[in-house]
Every structure is written in C-alpha cells, then in structure tokens.
Design goal:
There is one protein chain. By secondary structure, this protein is mostly helical. It has 2 domains: 126 residues, no CATH class; 202 residues, no CATH class. It has a 3-stranded mixed beta sheet, with no helix packed on it. A hairpin with a 2-residue loop joins strand 1 and strand 2. Helix 7 packs across helix 8. It is globular. The termini are far apart. InterPro entries: Leg1 (IPR008499).
Length: 333
C-alpha cells in the first residue's frame, strides 16, 4: 500500500499527509446524516411492503446508514463508533453529490433545488443515476445475502416518475435484470467475519467497479444535461475509480472524508479551465487535472495494463505533459 501511494502522490490522486484537511468528527458525516432512517422499520409501509423512495436524498442515504449499522460489529478493531467501516465511502460520496448540487439537475426544475424540493434526486441527474447502482444495488445485494436478518415484509423501491425502465426495484427484479452485478454485491455481504481487511476491500472495490462499469454506458445520455467541463469530470471520475480500486484504498470515515475534501465543491461550468479554476484550491485543481490525465492515458493505451499505466504516469509525466493530454482554454479579454 505505501509503495502504491508513493506512486500516486505525484499525480495528485492521493495527497500526502501534509496536504490533508483536518476535519472534525461532526464535519465528516454526510449532510443530514442524523435525519436519515437508521433501521428498515423506519421506512413507510404500504400493502404489506416496506417502501423506500430512492429518489429522496434522505431515504437513499438511510439505505447506506442501515448497511453501516448492520456491519459495525465487523469493524470494532478499527476504531470506535464504526469509524473504521469501509462502507463509509459510499454515503460520503452521495453526501458530496448532494452538497455540491450534483443531484439537482437540470437547473430549470424544482427537483433538488432550494426553491423546490431540496431532497429530490432528479432522474435526469447523471450523478444521481450512477449513484443508484452504488446505493440501491448494494442494499438489495445485502438483502439477498440475508445481511439484515429475516424481514417480516418484502422491500420495494419506488420508481421515478419517468425513465422507469433504467432501474430495477426489488431483489427478484434486479436479479433477473443484472444477476452478475447483484452477485458481486451479495458476495461482499457474505464475506466471513474473519476475513482480512484487504480481502474485504477487494470484494468491495470489485463490486464498486462493476456497478460503475454497468451504469456508465447506461446513463451516457444523461451527460447532455451537464456542462462540458462537468461532463468530462464525470467521465474522468468514473475512470479514476478503477485506478483507486486497484490500490484497495481503505474507504473508512477518516480516509474518505479527508481526501474527498479535494473534490470540486460545486458543479463545473462552461469556462472552468483546469488547473486554473479560481475558486478551487490548488489541490482541487490538481486532482481534476490528474483525473483527466489518467482518463486520457487510459484511452490512449487501453486498460490491459492498469498498474503499469499507474507507474508510468507517476514516474514519467510532468506538468507540461499533463497540459498536452488535457489542454486548457485561455480566454483573451
């Protein structure tokens, strides 16, 4: 792990300890975490079914909270209050999407905006749709694995008002549509309690990457609702996850919170030119540039030698090379 980190640092994908932001325990949690359901029984019932509105931020966040609560006993050796749980990466990423307005697209609607329903997740949001396969599918995979014990009532996910065919809504429905992806998440939640942390991370990251690989082509039509820079960042982010997964990055509360501070604090807009976005920190600009370089290099060389590409990038590419791969636009005034 230390060797891999030393390779990645020059590219800005993982920042050295001196650059890491110090966060309080309260700051680390996703927005509205304390309001999210913490038990399946906290959701509403209808027709003898437990109903979850996956297009409501708090209700989707609650699915993560339940998974974390039920898995806390496996991570007691890694810190008190469940801080060492490697599932934290998922809700923290979802919280960042909510906080930065990435679930509220497009801007000409009331869904997800302060003037309307700020908890609404838009079915046009590329980020919200991608996250569906990193929230609902893990939850249903855990449900299929019996991770929550024997439930008295079946669980059903409410569909969005449109584009319903892009999603599945129950264990049986999802298993019929995406059996391999469901099996990946089920396998993670079936890992024995005695498993080593690195092996658990392997299962988790394997399922995580599988979700992105499935969702990325499925929701490419949602990218049209984003600005050019935001669309490129989204694709770079999806590609970058695979590189981070190769390191088995430990996605506990502290690690994820600290490094997530270097993701963009708002949606990118037309005119944003990395790495010179004025209201972003130098570290945020550097991470955006690094993700772009990783993606471009991956496109040029293919994905067959992912670790070799990592080493090549970190040892050989200078900032000048980075600009050649990810050209910036300079505007004259």
């Amino acid at each position: 792990w230390n060797r891999l980190v030393s390779w990645i640092w020059p590219m800005g994908c993982i920042l050295p300890p001196a650059a890491v932001v110090s966060l309080t325990h309260k700051d680390a949690f996703p927005p509205l975490w304390h309001l999210a359901p913490g038990d399946i029984k906290d959701y509403s019932m209808k027709d003898n079914k437990i109903i979850i509105d996956a297009w409501n931020y708090e209700e989707r966040l609650g699915m993560y909270k339940i998974m974390l609560n039920h898995s806390s006993k496996y991570f007691t050796a890694f810190g008190s209050n469940n801080v060492g749980n490697i599932l934290w990466g998922l809700p923290l990423q979802h919280g960042w999407q909510y906080h930065t307005g990435r679930l509220a697209l497009p801007p000409n609607t009331t869904c997800g905006h302060g003037s309307g329903d700020h908890l609404c997740i838009s079915v046009q949001s590329w980020w919200g749709c991608m996250n569906y396969y990193l929230a609902i599918i893990p939850f249903l995979g855990a449900l299929e694995a019996g991770f929550f014990g024997q439930l008295k009532y079946p669980v059903e996910i409410l569909p969005p008002e449109e584009q319903k065919e892009d999603f599945c809504y129950s264990v049986s429905d999802c298993h019929s549509q995406i059996p391999k992806l469901m099996d990946e998440w089920k396998a993670y939640f079936e890992t024995p309690a005695s498993i080593k942390l690195d092996d658990a991370l392997n299962y988790l990251w394997k399922a995580h990457v599988a979700s992105i690989d499935y969702a990325l082509p499925k929701f490419k039509n949602r990218l049209k609702y984003l600005s050019g820079p935001e669309s490129n960042f989204g694709k770079n982010w999806a590609n970058g996850v695979e590189f981070i997964a190769a390191t088995h990055f430990p996605t506990d509360l502290r690690n994820t919170s600290e490094y997530q501070a270097f993701l963009p604090p708002r949606l990118l807009v037309e005119g944003d030119a990395i790495p010179f976005i004025g209201d972003f920190s130098p570290e945020q600009n550097k991470v955006l540039l690094s993700l772009c370089v990783l993606h471009k290099t991956n496109e040029f060389t293919g994905r067959q030698h992912i670790c070799g590409i990592f080493l090549l990038l970190s040892k050989e590419l200078s900032l000048q090379n980075n600009f050649l791969l990810c050209p910036v636009k300079f505007e004259t005034r």
